[in-house]
Amino acid sequence: MDWLAGLDAYFAAMIRCIGFDADDTLWHNESIFARAQERYRQLLARHHPPAEVDRALFATEMRNLPLYGYGVKGFLLSSIETAIDLTGGKISAAEIREIIATGHEMLAHPVDLLPDVAATLPTLSRDYRLLLITKGDLQHQERKIAASGLGAHFHAVEILSEKDGATYERILQRHGLSPAEFAMVGNSLKSDILPVLALGGAGVHVPYHITWQHEHVEAAPDDQPRFRRIERFAELPAALTGL
Prior knowledge:
Blueprint: H1 2-12, E1 17-20, H2 30-43, H3 50-68, H4 72-86, H5 93-108, H6 117-127, E2 129-135, H7 138-148, E3 156-160, H8 165-174, E4 182-186, H9 189-199, E5 202-205, E6 227-229, H10 236-242
Parallel strand pairs: 1-2, 1-4, 2-3, 4-5, 5-6
């Protein structure tokens, strides 16, 4: 019967599990990096203009990404290396110590939840299985998750070195999910949304007011039927129902 086949297809495509990015989706993160980079520009201002400092630092970060991965520690090491290069090795020990102090402050920064997150997650956890899927330094991410007070809402936590199609596919297999049953929520189209849509899953984009250069994409997948964009986290339950 055609209607039975249609009903089977409907239930097969129902979202049963939601993956959440952490940094800049559940709590503030990129704004901390932005403030640290402004201090870094000021430190090197007598050597190079801000745009040149930014360009050199980003190039170093991208070169070191396969070695250090994402997070504050990789940023800190790349900042020291760039400062040595931009000053021709003349940067002082006191200035390097200032860079290190900035990194320590970033690592110790309190977790500041984004609006509506604390109120919305408990509601969603009653109707869906929730996964926390984040990339970055293992120790720092674990500390932030614990400090956030959100850990109890998640069925499992995945801390990754990268987010791409192959990684999401392994996560879905590990948790016994098909792509059609899965929706990913995050602020990065590149890391959180596009790889999941390519697998046949759903994606909900919650933009953050700052996007790291590495995460920029040219255009949003607005023509995709399983894609939604929301402005506030509180809009998420309705967006998921629409999917």
